[in-house]
Amino acid sequence: RPKRGSAGNSSEAPVHFRIYTSKPPFPGGLPPPIGLPFMPGGPSGGDDEDGEVPTLERRLRAAGLPAEAEEVVTRELRRLRRMSPMHSEYSTLVDYLEWMAELPWAPPESPQPPVPLSQARAQLEEDHYAMDKVKQRILEFLAVCHLRGDTKGSILCMLGPPGIGKTSLGKSVAAALGRPFHRVSVGGIHSEAEVRGHRRTYVGALPGLILQAVKKCGAANCVIMLDEVDKLGRNSYNGDPSSALLEVLDPEQNGAFRDHFLAVPFNLSQVLFIATANEMEGIPRPLRDRMEVIELTGYTVDDKVAIAARHLLPKQVALHGLSPGQLSLGEEELDHLISGYTREAGVRELERKLGALCRAIAANVSEAGEAASEAAAAAAA
């Protein structure tokens, strides 16, 4: 064929052929396709029995999800199987399914039996001095729980000055019921998302503090203490957290609590909520109407002397590495310490003063021991 653009030239262009006589590299044909490890179907993909997706599926099947949550999880698992691990939403979806698998959706099949009332009374008397009316109200509450078999409809609020044992009373209630206990500090919270959780459209989204506490307890019938409920943040542009707590603390509504992260109802009716506060004025009125307030008054001087002798002084002596014989205070010394150096309703300042005495004694004991060691070394030399 003549070249284009050369009318007078009829010579043809040379054609070169290359012939290979070696054997083909794959005599039996091409090998089967091998998936990449970071793609679905690869060596570590979701088709393996030990892969990430089958493991999640087994955990979700054993979680005992309700019907609505199971439908959502099935749909999300179907999306996860079709999604590449390199996708930006893959890790978010895996985190969501892990949260769904780890939350306790039903009470334990063999819960720990509650403590008998006589033992609970003895435990309260041993752990807390005075406060007879408060302890009697707690025992009445425990008796009702034993008869009914649940704690639905009871939201307690311990109201009193700082340092009088509100948190320790909540722990005693959890121990008497045989349930796990978790404390959530809600003071200073300024966002509704801290209670209801963040939506999954945000980076690093998590459930709210309530569901995080339930997950840490590992039981749907746990005891959660909402500490400093009178110090909730207000006038925030991110929502009112006290309004978000209304659904949590309402026995008629918390059976279908909907967290923004989960987007499915979660049953909080088996959870016993105990709130603490220092002042009644700081609690919003709608939130106050959903709680039964138990007022705790301050201790007298005689009460503080007994508490210091029975609890605080032995605790500080052991904490500073002293023996009981190295520091002993009688009633007169404790009375003088309380009347002259502590002016409070609780016993926190008294505990700090006892700690200061223990540190001074510990310094004297250490110096005396070092002097004796140096004298013994000098005598030996």
Give an overview of the whole structure:
The structure is a single chain. The chain contains 13 helices and seven strands. The chain is of the alpha/beta class and 381 residues long.
The fraction of residues assigned to DSSP E strands is 5-15%
Count up the helices: 13
Indicate the percent of residues in helices: 40-55%
- The 3D shape can be described as extended
Which structural class do the helices and strands define? alpha/beta
Poorly predicted runs are 33-47
Largest sheet: 5 strands, parallel
Strand order of the largest sheet: 2-3-6-1-7
Mean pLDDT over all positions: 82
Query: Could you spell the SSE succession in H and E letters?
Result: HHHHHEHEHHEHEEEHEHHH
How far apart lie the N and C ends?
117 Å
Keywords:
381 residues; alpha/beta; five-stranded parallel sheet; two-stranded antiparallel sheet; 44% helix; extended
SSE order and pairing:
Blueprint: H1 52-61, H2 67-82, H3 90-102, H4 117-127, H5 132-148, E1 155-159, H6 166-177, E2 181-185, H7 193-196, H8 209-217, E3 223-227, H9 241-249, E4 257-258, E5 265-266, E6 272-277, H10 285-288, E7 292-295, H11 301-319, H12 331-341, H13 348-380
Parallel strand pairs: 1-6, 1-7, 2-3, 3-6
Antiparallel strand pairs: 4-5
